[in-house]
Write a structure and sequence with these properties.
The protein has about 190 residues and is mainly β. The protein is built from four helices and ten strands; from the N terminus they run E-E-E-E-E-E-E-E-H-E-H-E-H-H. Strands 1, 2, 3, 4, 5, 6, 7, 8, 9 and 10 form a ten-stranded mixed sheet that branches. Strand 2 and strand 3 form a beta hairpin. The chain starts with 9 loop residues before the first strand and ends in a 10-residue tail after the last helix.
């Protein structure tokens, strides 16, 4: 994986990754390069409605309408991940395309300006970040599976099932990993 740009791909925590912040997480990589990597955990909704922190955006967020914990870094900041239809080179006002239909919305942009250009929106508190070479080392150590993302992964209605769903669709040994119990000692 060294030297390969993983932007737009998913990191799926392997059963070896038992640290609570990333246990059974699915991370969408928003940026990956020689300066490190940045992503958001897409399967950790909180119990907090977006309304509690960004009330003007609440009517427009994708189900379940909750704030997601994007990772352990900068929990006091918010990222707006969006899906933008149309040509990959089109960037609506207030949106920066990342890869394919995915982009980040500037949450200071008035929603009525940008929302008509979007199909889905999810708000994340914090993000996951890696220093140069750190993510590659974690992948080599067996902490992460790197798999292709499907367009709806970041906006699924059932984020609590995403870890197993992503693994299951890989087939083979990874599909088997999806059946591992939460607590292996109960097996």
């Amino acid at each position: 994986m060294r030297g390969q740009d993983l932007t737009g791909r998913l990191l799926v925590a392997t059963p070896r990754l038992v640290h609570e912040e990333f246990r059974r997480t699915v991370v969408l990589l928003l940026d990956h390069g020689e300066d490190g990597a940045l992503g958001v955990v897409v399967n950790r909704p909180t119990e907090i409605d977006v309304d509690a922190v960004l009330p003007v955006w609440q009517p427009f967020v994708t189900v379940p309408g909750r704030l997601f914990q994007g990772g352990p870094v900068a929990l006091d900041s918010a990222l707006g991940l969006v899906s933008v239809p149309g040509a990959a080179d089109a960037e609506p006002l207030g949106v920066r395309r990342l890869t394919g239909s995915l982009g980040l919305v500037d949450l200071d942009t008035p929603p009525e300006v940008v929302v008509p250009e979007l199909t889905r929106l999810r708000i994340f508190a914090g993000y996951a970040g890696w220093a140069p070479g750190q993510l590659e080392s974690e992948i080599e150590d067996g902490s992460w599976y790197v798999v292709d993302a499907e367009p709806g992964d970041a906006f699924t209605d059932t984020p609590e099932r995403l870890w197993a769903d992503v693994l299951r669709r890989q087939g083979g040994d990874l599909a088997l990993v999806a059946t591992f119990p939460e607590d292996p000692s109960l097996n």
